[in-house]
Amino acid sequence: MARAARAPVRRAARAADVVTYSLRVATAKAEETRERILDAALSLFRQRGFDETTMRDIAAEAGVATGAAYYYFRSKEELVMAFYARTAEEAREVIPPLVTRSHDLGKRVRAIIDTQLKQFEEHRRLMVALVRIGIDPKHPLSPFGEETGDMRNASIDFFRAAIVDSKPPVPKDLAADLPRLLWLYQMGIILFWMFDESRGQRRTRALLDGTIDLVVRLIQISSLPMMGRLRKRLLAILRAVEE
After folding, report:
1. CATH fold of 77-243, please?
2. What pTM, to 2 d.p., does this model score?
3. What are the sequence ranges of the domains in the chain?
4. Which of the four pLDDT bands, split at 50, 70 and 90, describes residue 166?
5. Which residues contact 36 (CB under 8 A, 6 or more apart)?
6. pLDDT at 18
7. Using an 8 Å Cβ cutoff, are 108 and 99 in contact?
């Protein structure tokens, strides 16, 4: 009697297992399709350019129906946002171990920026096409916009980690603002790199070599007692501008 009573329970458990397995397979297949569409889009953006590529082109390259491409991504802009998210996720895995290799602030900052440039290296054509978007902070894809805020803050956090126990040490009153300033410095480097047509972007490397050393020296100078008043005045101006 008890055995008969347990039979429906076992059948229900098996049915639940089947449903769970089916959902897991369907989710994995959907994620694979989504990644394939994104890879196809990035490949076409590199080959043809962002403006010249259509969603129909992307669907054909990915081997899916156009409607399926629109199911996963409503526009090319959503594909770019997915590219941003993928890059940010990769950076979260790669950059922290690089930062902990040295206490030298210059080496830490260089490691962060070098990693970001390497991530974007094969996507320079896409990045150049998006410059006009980046200028408008109200555009969803702008690195200065609200929609990209989480990724921007994650990038700023890399620099926040870089200044912890660094050499030279960072003045306490500068520590809160410096990560954002370093991120803005990185954005300037990336912008220069986008339009650097020298072989292997040699000019960008030269710019990095010289300016990182300069940035570190300025931080050292700012920590001198005689620079305290000037440092506070500069920080007050920066905070007023942000507000």
Report:
1. Tetracycline Repressor; domain 2 (1.10.357)
2. 0.81
3. 1-74, 77-243
4. very high
5. 62, 63, 64
6. 45
7. yes
> Quick one: pLDDT band at residue 134, thresholds 50, 70, 90?
confident
Side-chain-side CA neighbours of 226 within 13 Å: the count stands at 1
Structure token pair of residue 82? 């997915």
Q: Domain 1-74: give its CATH architecture.
A: Orthogonal Bundle (1.10)
Please state the separation of Cα 209 from the chain's center in Å: 23
Q: Label residue 138 exposed, middle or buried (CB < 10 Å: 0-12, 13-18, 19+).
A: exposed
Residues whose CB falls within 8 Å of the CB of residue 207, separated by 6 or more in sequence, listed in order: 189, 192
Once rounded to an integer, what is the mean pLDDT over residues 30-34? 93
Q: What is the pLDDT of residue 19?
A: 41
* % of the chain residues with pLDDT over 90: 60
Instruction: Give one DSSP letter per residue of the chain, joined into a string.
Output: -HHHHHHHHHHHHHHHHHHHHHHHHHHHHHHHHHHHHHHHHHHHHHHH-TTT--HHHHHHHHTS-HHHHHHH-SSHHHHHHHHHHHHHHHHHHHHHHHHTT--BHHHHHHHHHHHHHHHHGGGHHHHHHTHHHHH-TTSTT-TTSSTTHHHHHHHHHHHHHHTTT-BSPPPHHHHTTHHHHHHHHHHHHHHHHHT--SGGGHHHHHHHHHHHHHHHHHHHHHTSGGGHHHHHHHHHHHHHHH-
Considering only CA atoms, which of 83, 92, 142, 132 is closest in space to residue 115? 92
How many other C-beta atoms can be found within 10 angstroms of the C-beta atom of residue 24? Answer: 10
